[in-house]
Structure formats: C-alpha cells, structure tokens
Structure of 2-succinylbenzoate--CoA ligase:
Amino acid sequence: MMTPNWILQRASLTPDRIAISWEEQQWTFREMAERSMDIAKKMRGTGLQEGNRVALLTTGGPETVFLIHGGLLAGFELVMLNSRLTAAELAYQIEDSEAVAVFTDDSLLDRAPDSTPVSRLLCGKAEDFKPAELWHEDRTLTIMYTSGTTGFPKGVRQTAGNHLSSAAASAFNMGLQDGDVWLCAMPLFHISGFSILSRSLIYGMTVRLQSKFDAEASAREIAEGSVTTMSAVSAQLVRVLDILEGRKLRADGRFRQILAGGGPVPSPYIRRAEALGIQILQTYGMTETSSQTATLAAEDALRKTGSSGKPLFFNRIRIEGAEKPGDEGEILISGPHVTPGYVGRFSDSPAQVDGWLHTGDIGKLDDEGFLYVLDRRSDLIISGGENIYPAEIEQVLVGHPDVAEAGVAGVEDKHWGHVPAAFVVVRKAIAAEELEAFCRERLAPYKVPKYYRFVEELPRNASNKLLRRELRAAFEIEK
Amino acid sequence: MMTPNWILQRASLTPDRIAISWEEQQWTFREMAERSMDIAKKMRGTGLQEGNRVALLTTGGPETVFLIHGGLLAGFELVMLNSRLTAAELAYQIEDSEAVAVFTDDSLLDRAPDSTPVSRLLCGKAEDFKPAELWHEDRTLTIMYTSGTTGFPKGVRQTAGNHLSSAAASAFNMGLQDGDVWLCAMPLFHISGFSILSRSLIYGMTVRLQSKFDAEASAREIAEGSVTTMSAVSAQLVRVLDILEGRKLRADGRFRQILAGGGPVPSPYIRRAEALGIQILQTYGMTETSSQTATLAAEDALRKTGSSGKPLFFNRIRIEGAEKPGDEGEILISGPHVTPGYVGRFSDSPAQVDGWLHTGDIGKLDDEGFLYVLDRRSDLIISGGENIYPAEIEQVLVGHPDVAEAGVAGVEDKHWGHVPAAFVVVRKAIAAEELEAFCRERLAPYKVPKYYRFVEELPRNASNKLLRRELRAAFEIEK
C-alpha cells in the first residue's frame, strides 16, 4: 500500500491548523512543512541521496521535529540516536547502522564520532529537489536501537506501514476529537515520542512539545485544559499527580487521558488520577512494535489492575505454549505494526517467526483475553522511562580485567522507579568505586549501576542461564 | 497487509459493547458474532467453500447485518444485490458476477432468478468450520454493481484494504468518541450503508439501524441525542430538518454531524442545519472508492458552498489536464480505497490507469485545493439517494421496436431531488403510456422515466456523442 507523503499531505489538507506548540511559539502544518523542506534541501545539498541512511543526534524541541521531518522529506532512513548515550555507544550505533552521515546540533557536536562525516545544517548549501509524493508502506522511516538480550544493541527498522497502522489502531482505541492536543514530554528519538509526531501528521493533531519532561508545566497544562492527552511513564505520572494534589487542582474537563507506558501503573496512582479527573490508559509496547501493542481501557483500570489490556485492533497477542487462560509463557505479537527486521549485525536475524515477534517478555492472558506482562524481557530495567538492558552492562563489567563474571538486575528506586544493581564475581579484590568509574566511561549515566555487590557465584539455572530474578530477590532480602 | 478477521477481533476486544441497535432490540459485538457464525455454518452447510462468490438479496434490518457478516465469516465474496431491482436486472448481476448461490429472505424469494441455486438459510444444515483468523487486504469482501456509462452495470470489487483504509481515513477526518452511535438509514447493499457496518467493526462503534429511512424517527433520535452521527442524502436531510423545525426541536449536544452524500447540499439547508445545532459534512464518493473520497469540513461548509471538500488523508485527487486551479476536467482519484477492478464482463477493463481511477465525473480544484464536482459522470441521476445511469434506461428504450433513438436526462423533482426524463425519436407514433409500461417491466420502479418527450432528433456533438446536458436544458425551457 502507498500513502501520500504524510508531511506534504497534511500541510495540504489542514495547512492552517497548529502542528507544534512549544513554549510561547507555534507552527502550523504549512509552516512546519516549509521549515522541514528548507532543512531537507540543505540535507540534500550535502550530496546525500534519497534512500541514504543518516543518523540524527538531537537535543529535542521544535528544531528536532523539523530536522526529523526534513530527513523524511529528503527520503532518508533515519537512525534516531539517543543523545544521552556516550560517544562510544553512539559510535557503535552509527557504525552498525552504516549511517553515511550524522546531522546534529552544535551543542552535541563533540559527541559524534570523528570517523563519520558530521553535518551541521546551517553551513550546508541547499539543493532544490522534489520530495516523493508517495511513501510505500515498506519504506523504512526510522531505525531505533534497542539492546535485546545479547549486550549488542539491535537497530530496529520501523516502516511507514508500522507507524501508520500503529497510529490508526491507537485512534480506534483512544478516540480522536477536534481540538485534541497531545502533550509530548517523551524523547523524540524514542518510539514513545516519535509515535506522537506520526499521529500528529496522520490525524492532523496538535503536539504540545516539551524539550524535556517538565512536571510543573505538565500539571499546569492539564489543569488548564490546554492539552487533552499525555504520554507518561509511572515515575512522571506520579510527579504530576503530586503537584496537582499539592495545589488542590483538578484536570480540566477537556483533558481526557494519560497513556502510561513502561510498566504497570500501581493501582493507588490510578485511584489518585481518577480523583483528579484523569483517565489512565496503561499500555504495553516496544521499539519493535512501533509503540502500543495492547492498551488497557480506563474503565477496566481498577478491575484489571496490573494488566496491559487487550490488543489494539490490528494486533494479535498469544502466549507461547499456553494451553489455557492463565498459562504463563513468552509473549508473541503479530500485526502490521511489528518491525520487518533489523539492520547491521542483526540484519540476518529474523524479527518474526511465522509472522510472530518473540518478545522475550513473559506474560499471560486471562480468561477475558487481558494481557498481564510478568517480566519484561525477563530482565529489562526501566529507569525514569529509559530502557536498560542488563546484558549490555554485564558486557561492560566483564570487560574489566579483574571481573570474572557479572550479573545485573533492576532494583526499586524511589526516584527512578528502578535502577541497575551489579553482582560481580572478581578475580581479585577491587573497589566498587573503581567499577563505577569504569562503567561511567563506557555507559550513559542512567545505565551505570547504582549498587555493587561482590559475590562468590551467580545464580544460574540448569542450562547455565543467569537467573536475574534471583539476583533481584537476593538484593531485596539483603537490604 | 493482513488484518485480523474484523468480526471475531471486534467480538474479542469489546464483546459487551453494543454493535447493533434496532427498534427496541440490541445486540453486543459478541452476540452479533455468534449470530453471524451460526449463519456462516448454515451457509457452509450448503456445500459452499471459502472463496466462493455468492449473492445476497435482502430486505435490510439486523437480519441483513447478520447475513452479511455470516457471509464474510464463511469466507465468501459477497455480491450485494439491490432489492429494488427487477428480476431481470438481478438476473444480469447474478449471471455476470458468476455467483454460485443467492441467499435471500423468504419475502424476496420470488425475485431471485430460477437459474441460480437459491438458498434460504433456515432450511440448511450447519457445518462446523473454523473461520479465517486473518483477512488479507487484497481479499474481495464485497461486489457492488454500478452502471457506468455503457448501459451494462459493472460489478465493482471492494477489498478488505479498500474498506479498511476508507474507515481509517474517515475516522481521522470526522473524529471518533467513546459512545459514538452512527444512525444508518442507508441500504446495506449500497456502499453508503455497508461502510457504516465496516466502521462499526473497525472502531467498535454502535450502529443504530433503520430497516428503511424513517424521517420521523431520525429527527427524534437526533433531538434526543441517542445517536451522534448520521449519513443522509439531501432529500433525506431536508425532511429531517423540516420535522425538527416544525416541532421546534434542536439537535441534542451529543449529536455531532450528518455526513451528506449524493450531490452538493444547498446552502440554505446548511444554514438551517447549523441553526438546529447540526454540522453538515458534505462528501463525494462512489462505489469504486468504497465510500468517501473527499469530505468538506463543517467549518468550511458556508465558505466553500458547493464544494465536496478536500481528500481524506490517504487519498489524492487531480483534474485531468488541469494546468492551474479552477481548470475543469475529469476527476481522477488515487488511494488505497480505490477498487482494484471489476468482475464479469468488465473484468478485463482496468479500474485504474497508472494508479488513477478515471471517474467520468467533471470537476475542478480551487486555489486552496477544495474539490467542486460539476457534473457526476456527466449524466448520473441521483433520485432519492439511488444512482440512476441514463445509458441503462436508454438501452431499454431502444429495445422497443418503435423507438429509433433515446436519450435520458435527470430533471428536478420536488420529492426525489431528480427523476429521469426520456427523449425519444420514434419510427412510428406511440403512446407515452406504452413506453412507460415497457420500461416498468424491465427496470426498477425508481429508474422508470417520469416524463416522455417525442423529438425529431437528439442533440449530439461533433463526434456524435449524446449531449444529455442539452436535453436537460430543453426540458427546463419547455416546462
């Protein structure tokens, strides 16, 4: 299936509607398309061609939106780099994805590796070109890295069809009204943020943008009704609730719902939100499913506490090996929102087996078909909304000459939800501070373990697979 | 792209939501799926297989919905017969489509031709089978006949992808809210009615069904707010407005909009509707585009009187040969909602040329991209919401031994909007009553010309093409 170029089509259909609002400024869909087209011409002025793969390293805010849309208009595949990564992590993703250029803000210039041509836009000359009128559903729009279980981050391809079916199914589930404004405080290089931009283009909906999450501003806008929907993780949600309660404010009647991802929302939060007039829609999704794959309706939030709801309209979910409701197993996902595959070193690993994505997450479906996610990728740590994969940290730890074995698990943290804790078997005595410094050189700050435990051996199962759940349990007991 | 079987998926996602409400009865999505599955088993019990093409001849109402969904679950391609057609017209469509069976209500049994196996459902034995879990977007769900300009009706294939992209684009344009109820007073064998059933399954939306259009009931439900959206043609719309005004009623705040098809809505109607709190969304579509292709936003209804608005999100419209805004020409349409082609005698005629459907309609785009339809298929007559193709009636008239030539054009009618008028060149004198009786035997009642004019010659252009516009003009002058 082909769709018209989303950016140009939207600018043609509703040119005067507000696309992006940020601080005191706003841009209509026509203005956004014009700004993005200017950038696209400068991008093409560097000699790059349609179909090239380029990386974006950005700080967030409206300029990032224009840069992303510029890249899409230029016809590129966009490798979305997380600006919180270290130079070494960025270098891996740029090299693995074979991106031929990196476009970046001046403020991030020193982070981009020397080995890749780095283009800052303003110095480029512009090339006049005609952007594609149609986008094929199989066209890769974005590539986002996710770590998986191997320790080597995998570049996930997200096609136009992936993003489109995700946006459509989301609208069928959450509804869509004239005047909807989605508050985006999520990073735009994440699927949680990027999917808001897709929906904006496809629905003709305004995005209220925060360069980074601002709990005060979010609470104020919810109370004023200047936004109608918001995406948040639990840790952000609770900060917004605290502020509203503290100021004795409620959500304005125009505000409808918070789409809450990144793990189940505790039921006390849901009750507090309801008391403030806020519906909480809990959702389960991942980079490989271009955002939501299942979402729990607000009306079921308390009846089905801990559930991520039912699949969205196009999607199917099953539990591997389950024979009856309640049986636990790996969560398998099928639908047009599932990535067709990876790039780089994992380009030969199939993303789907017989049409099903094997998520690595463990879950169950109850007798009404509601999904409960019991363990994300067995071991995924979600810390302040960022995904942290233990295997990646373990890989760094065992790179230290004095470390024999390492296991990492997420442990609860008041501020971040969860943080990584390291369990290490050493060859000779070593200080936790030294390990921490070692990690800090090689990992983004949020991935650096907060706790270090020195142990005799790591818990493993019969087939020698590390049992990270037991690490977690041991940590809790010890505390 | 594959989608989950819409009927089963919807029953699984929102089993307890109301799918169909009719008179005092209602059915949830689960109940509807169960009823439809029972019918599907009886259909398969006749020996028919998945992929067979069968025709449905029905009277409307909930049983028709279950029959349609039963046919879809059974895996058939459904030829949707218009129950207002004569036995001869039905026979043509059944034969041309090569339908292997006709499923019908008892009340219509005498209308089905003898030559085709006719199955009444209640006498059949049931066969247990497992319906397809997935529907491919290329699967033909429905075949609807449209007459085109040749006099031979053409069977238009409408795929799952056609209906799906139409429903999605409609939601992006019209919005979608919890508690939406779409009032369906359109025949279910027409795309105007069937598309409401598709949207219901895809959105999880309730349909309030009328077996046939009931202006009194429609006005009452709009005033009570028991429905939120309605599809109507101008002739229906004005009757609803008359009743509301006569009773000094207004639309309830929950009622949002009337989607008005079948030709432009005169601006006085739009003003009257606005005064009653009703938004009018004027739309342009056809059987070949599985419902709407362009829709005029309510906010532009008066500013752009006479326009059908802008394309829906997935669609593109251009005017053949137009070099600048305002140039008139044939309307060409492109998008995933456009039929891949015809069945039967037209199966070799391409529906699209280089991805564009040539509608035969004449129109223009203004400088903001709003579509104005100037002439539908040059000559299409829309009478009480039914499409009437002059060529089909002319074909019948020239079949009379005393008729040498015939031309048919639509003329204004207070009750029906337009009715066909016949212009005939005869070989020897003949009474209008005889011609009318001749037509009545061969055409559905609504297609029988209301006026007969005997003329010396028909207006034709240089290439001898009949100029039906001049017939129309002559009739108006003569009146």
